[in-house]
Amino acid sequence: MANALSPAMTLREFENGYWYLEQLKDFAERIGIPAARKLRKDELEKAIVAFLLTGNAALPTNRPLRTTGVKDVERGLNLKLRIENYTSNRQTKDFIIEQAGLMAPDVREKSGVWYRLNRWREDQIMGGKHPTYGDLVRQYIVLNKMPRFERVPHGRYINFVADFLEARNGATRAEAIAAWNELKELDVAKDYASWVKARANGKGKNR
User: Fold this and answer.
1) Residue 2 is inside which H or E element, if any?
2) Is the pTM of this model over 0.70?
């Protein structure tokens, strides 16, 4: 497994490694990916994969990367407020959870819901719509009531945890995270099937 990101590395070396956000940002800047410091981790990974395959350093998203003006949390969050300058922080999440609890007391938060809620919000705005925080709360409820999420293209951690919990009846999220931390150190693809295979081959710890 490669220990450092390099323009000469293979796609396998990149995908079998585990790279922290700052490593990806630094590398993306080095190879010329635009606005590297403003990209999410999944966007950086997508851009780097494209670079390793094609040699082209391109922006991997069309979403606005700069926001100006007063943040929504400073305007006072309420259900009728249009989403204009969203802040992903504890205050915003607490508001969504509280309002969802009032609308649907039986709703329970599912693993991976925030990633999908954020992508829904971005897609709505990029599509020219004007969602409110009420729309966001209702979508949070819809997502949490889904029996199963569609897989996330670049969400290796999210997909691993979901697969781990589904395959191992009664497993806890803490056990899934511990297994993920083990997988990060292995020179294998970062998915549940590879973790199981590595463990069977004596590369992982028995759990």
Assistant:
1) none
2) no
